[in-house]
Amino acid sequence: MNTNRKFCSVSVHEHIYFLTKQTLGLSSCKDVLPIYVGDDKTDEDAFMFLTEGNRGYGILVTPAPKESSAYYSLRDPSEVCVCFITFIA
């Protein structure tokens, strides 16, 4: 087992920005809607980034209601599947 892990100091919201704007070249696209699904406090940075700039939607997956910057909340991963299937259909 390799225990020599290198941790990245880049925040989740910086990853979202880099992926959508630079890597995929979507900076000028008006019809792109980023959706970020997370399940704990470590995802709040991404939820805030998307919500504050009206850049997309965050979905918190949690069995109990929690305060969050996510735009939506779902109870479990199966609800995430139903949400995306409904969204795509």
From TrEMBL:
Q: Which UniProt keywords apply?
A: Hydrolase
Looking up InterPro entries in the UniProt record yields: HAD-like_sf (IPR036412), HAD_sf (IPR023214), OTSB-like (IPR044651), Trehalose_PPase (IPR003337)
The GO terms describing molecular function are: trehalose-phosphatase activity
The protein's job, in short, is: Removes the phosphate from trehalose 6-phosphate to produce free trehalose. Trehalose accumulation in plant may improve abiotic stress tolerance.
What are its E.C. numbers?
Answer: 3.1.3.12
GO terms for biological process, alphabetical: trehalose biosynthetic process
In its UniProt entry, what is this protein called?
Trehalose-phosphatase
The record's section on PANTHER family has: TREHALOSE 6-PHOSPHATE PHOSPHATASE, TREHALOSE-PHOSPHATE PHOSPHATASE A
Cofactors: a divalent metal cation
Catalyzed reactions: alpha,alpha-trehalose 6-phosphate + H2O = alpha,alpha-trehalose + phosphate
